[in-house]
């Protein structure tokens, strides 16, 4: 992978990782249209770490407060809003971890196709648009175990390419009555352990493969994807309540059409 290709895909990854529009769909299209080869495992690791640094930096205050409250809850029976939210992030992560370990081979072999990608981009994009009608004024402190498990299993669906992790979790949370801002906040907090785990596993695979690594290209991609993702999170959190989810849903329908058209042209 040359530097220009890596930088373009890093920007695409940073823009789409936390928007509810499917980052995998956006990485497939440039490669298909421009004839680029797969970006490779090393690139995946780099942009995952960039995304992780972005979300941790943006929510650094929340993370410190949640971590301190969680640690205090271990030695006390008194729960606070922050300690409960910390536990909900842990509980909401478990379905994706368990199903990811069980179904990883199945997904890699059978579901990483353009037709699956286009279908999930379309179907879950439509659901995203409908979810806005159900969003109310519930906050993260109003979450219950049942609600968290529903959102957690929804997040596990994002193992299927094209679903969009942020899109499906925001959709589920909005259907359960959370406000769009609170649904987005919980979605981004849920992303931290998931992205951390994915980056760790991919790193182990990378070092196990023993391939030569172009550190200059990878560090540039990580930095650019991180900066782009950080700016994108800030924009989305400020604007989601004003513009809602429908524009993202419409965009996903158009993206799905482009994916289908590209897949059909390659038959």
Automatic annotation (TrEMBL):
Instruction: Kindly state which reaction or reactions the protein catalyses.
Output: di-trans,octa-cis-undecaprenyl diphosphate + H2O = di-trans,octa-cis-undecaprenyl phosphate + phosphate + H(+)
For this protein, the record's Pfam families field holds:
BacA
Q: Which GO terms describe its biological process?
A: cell wall organization; peptidoglycan biosynthetic process; regulation of cell shape; response to antibiotic
Q: Which UniProt keywords apply?
A: Antibiotic resistance, Cell membrane, Cell shape, Cell wall biogenesis/degradation, Hydrolase, Membrane, Peptidoglycan synthesis, Transmembrane, Transmembrane helix
Note the topology in the membrane: Multi-pass membrane protein
Q: Where are the transmembrane segments?
A: 40-59, 85-103, 109-131, 143-163, 183-201, 213-237, 243-264
Q: Which GO terms describe its cellular component?
A: plasma membrane
Where is the major localization of this protein? membrane
* Superkingdom of origin: Bacteria
Biological role: Catalyzes the dephosphorylation of undecaprenyl diphosphate (UPP). Confers resistance to bacitracin.
- PANTHER family from the UniProt entry: UNDECAPRENYL-DIPHOSPHATASE
Additional remark text = Bacitracin is thought to be involved in the inhibition of peptidoglycan synthesis by sequestering undecaprenyl diphosphate, thereby reducing the pool of lipid carrier available.
Similarity comment: Belongs to the UppP family.
Question: What's the name of the protein?
Answer: Undecaprenyl-diphosphatase
Query: What is the organism field in this record?
Result: Litorivivens lipolytica
């Amino acid at each position: 992978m040359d530097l220009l290709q890596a930088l373009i895909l890093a920007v695409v990854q940073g823009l789409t990782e936390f928007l509810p529009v499917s980052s995998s769909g956006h990485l497939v299209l440039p490669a298909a249209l421009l004839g680029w080869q797969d970006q490779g495992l090393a690139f995946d690791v780099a942009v995952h770490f960039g995304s992780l640094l972005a979300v941790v930096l943006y929510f650094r205050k929340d993370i410190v407060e949640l971590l301190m409250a969680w640690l205090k809850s271990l030695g006390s029976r008194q729960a606070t809003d922050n300690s409960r939210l910390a536990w909900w992030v842990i509980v909401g992560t478990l379905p994706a971890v368990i199903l990811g370990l069980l179904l990883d081979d199945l997904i890699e072999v059978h579901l990483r196709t353009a037709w699956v990608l286009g279908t999930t981009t379309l179907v879950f994009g439509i659901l995203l648009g409908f979810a806005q009608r159900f969003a109310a004024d519930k906050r993260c402190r109003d979450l219950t175990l049942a609600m968290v498990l529903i959102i957690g299993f929804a997040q596990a669906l994002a193992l299927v390419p094209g679903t969009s992790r942020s899109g499906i979790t925001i959709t589920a949370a909005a259907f359960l009555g959370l406000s769009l801002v609170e649904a987005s906040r919980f979605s981004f907090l849920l992303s931290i352990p998931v992205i951390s785990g994915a980056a760790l596993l991919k790193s182990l695979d990378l070092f196990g493969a023993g391939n030569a690594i172009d550190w200059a290209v990878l560090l540039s991609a990580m930095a650019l994807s991180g900066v782009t993702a950080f700016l994108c999170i800030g924009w989305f959190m400020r604007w989601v309540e004003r513009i809602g989810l429908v524009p993202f849903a419409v965009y996903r329908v158009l993206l799905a059409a482009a994916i289908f058209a590209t897949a059909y042209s390659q038959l």
